[in-house]
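Chain A, query sequence.
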Amino acid sequence: MKTILRNLLVLFLLAFSLQSCEDQDDVDSLADLQINDFIWKGLNQFYLWQGDVPTLADDRFNTQEALNSYLKGYSKPENLFEDLLNKPISKFPKGEAIDRFSWIVEDYSVLEGELQGTTKNNGIDFRLSYKPGSSTDVFGFVRYVIPNSDAAAKGVKRGDLFTGVNGTQLTVSNYEALLLDSDSYTLNLADYNGTTYVSNGKSVSLVKSTLDENPILINKVITSGSHKIGYLMYNGFYPNYDTQLNEAFGQLAAQGITDLVLDLRYNGGGSVQTATRLASLITGQFKDQIFAKEKWNSKVNAYYESEDPESLNNRFVDNMDGQPLNSLRLTKVYILTTNGTASASELVINGLAPYISVVQVGDVTVGKNVGSVTLYDSETFTKTKVNPNHKYAMQPLVLKIVNATGFGEYTNGLQPTYKQLEYVATLGVLGDPSEPLLNAAISAITGTATKRVQQDRAEALRTFIDAKSMNGIRNQMYVEKAPEGLLRSLK
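Chain A, predicted structure.
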């Protein structure tokens, strides 16, 4: 009798376990379908190239059931997202890509931090470049070190070179696993021997932590003859540092600067609102005039033009949340750029060009004239009443941006007035008047520069990727939220 009861109990528990697994599978399946439904509907309404992707057409699916049937074919939301983009860089890596910058994340809290300058970071901002003569092996060099970070505490400095991590040579196929997938690693340091980059037997062990990066790295005044030159190195358009940015300009104004060098060489972008404020700080005499104009897809643009056309304009301002701006009222600005200068940085250059003289010193910029917005899984695609079953969010491209004259065609980058490349052998100290890019700008200010700055006799580095792109920030230019009025009009 006991044996029978024991067998019945086992069968009952097995049946209950199988039912529980089935119930959990149903929950997981439902959550996956909700994510996929959010992705399709968000891109259908807001994606810049919605009209160019047949699967995103308004009449592509006649019923929710038909849409669900399509969405069930994707077990990974990331795969669906990529398939709905217009020639994404992941599928067209050799120059044919149209969408180079849209992305999706599994945890929107990480995305929100990145857009405000908060990342899991050990403090080194670096770039990876190909070793001379190689298409697989790469080496890294430190561009700058974030203050109060582990790297700063361990004496890492600008110009330090590394070829490996944890004893393994860095390559185009293993750099993510070595540098991204671990919270701690050891950099194998290197020297340049005149031909290539070789290990020098030294190393430094670094640990990542949640790090807030103040984008104002350097703010100082340099006197050169009769010129008092303000130098501001600004590394990200992070809105939560806008007050500090205004204070930095106040410090420059108080010292009576005659010229401004704005260093955006490593600035991959950020908030459109912050870019508008920065342009207004540089000037101040153009309040309420158009700094930039947004062009969304046909559905969004039609709504704006009918209901709220002014929302498409970003105008120069004279205050920040009621606080007056410490504007310099300049008629000329000198901006340092590299091939890592992108999006909101380019917006500042292009948006100022119709109003004042913009002298660009350095290299050609990235060429990102499109902006994004964070979309959450909710009825309004904002964080209000967000779906509690997952934390996926999207950062798709939703708009193109042009200046007051309507110009925005710079996908091949903005060309410098004075070309000056960076070389590892002569990086120099940031903020020092002898540093090559800053020195070229000072020469332009004092009238001793020519249009063709003498280049160093060294091989130009072939760039592979930089730390900001690796961390997910991806050359961003974003607006704060999608237009909720449009969503209500479509319901």
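The radius of gyration is 26 Å. The chain is about 30% helix and 25% strand.
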